[in-house]
Amino acid sequence: MHSFESHIRNVPDFPKPGILFKDITPLLQERFHEVIESMASTIKWDEIDYVVGIESRGFILGAAMATLKGKGFIPVRKKGKLPPPIIAESYTLEYGTDTLEMIVNQIPGRVVLVDDVLATGGTLKAVMNLCQKNQFEVKALSLLINLTFLNKFIEEGHPVHSVLNY
User: Is 57 an annotated catalytic residue?
Assistant: First the structure.
C-alpha cells in the first residue's frame, strides 16, 4: 500500500473558519504518477469512453488519467468559462454556492468523474446531474480523497473509487 497520507498537508480554517483543508500539492509534487495510477486502478476502463474532470484540481487528475488510459477528456468548468452552447447546474457546497457548466454533448457516452476531494457531495451531485442531462452515463467516480464522515455516497450505492478515506 502507498503512503500518500504523509504528503497531504492539513490547513485549518481554509477557505473559511471551521474547514480543515486537505492540501494535495505536496503529494502531487512528490508522487503524481503513483497517485494517477492509484486513482485509475479500480476503474473498469472497457466501460469508459471519456474522463470528466471537475474544475480545478479535477482537471489535473482527470487529464492525467485520460492520458494514461487513452481516453478523451471533458472539462466541467465554473460559470462563464466555457463558450456556448452549454448546460449549467447550480449547487451548494460547504462554504457557499456555485454553478458548473459543461459543453452541450451530441453523442451519448460512458464517463468516469474525477475530482480531488469528495466532501459533502454537492459538486459531484451537480456534475452527475449535468452528465445525465447531457447523454453521459456515469459509470464511476474517481477521487483522491473521500471525506466519508461528510457524505453518504458509498451508502447510497454510488460507484465511488477513492484512494484515501477519512
Answer: yes
Burial class (CB in 10 A: 0-12, 13-18, 19+), 111: buried
Catalytic residue among 5, 57, 110, 156: 57
Residue 2: its pLDDT value, please? 67
pTM of the model: 0.93
Q: Which of 37, 55, 94, 110 does the annotation list as catalytic?
A: 94
CATH 3.30.460.10 fits 44-165, yes or no: no
Q: How far apart are CA 34 and CA 164, in angstroms?
A: 13
What phi-psi label fits residue 9: left (phi over 0), alpha (psi between -120 and 50 degrees) or beta? beta
Residues of the chain with pLDDT below 70 are 1-2, 93-95
The domain segmentation of the chain, as residue ranges, is: 44-165
Is the CB of residue 119 less than 8 Å from the CB of residue 150?
yes
The reported pLDDT for the residue numbered 101 is 98
Distance CA 61, CA 73 (A): 11
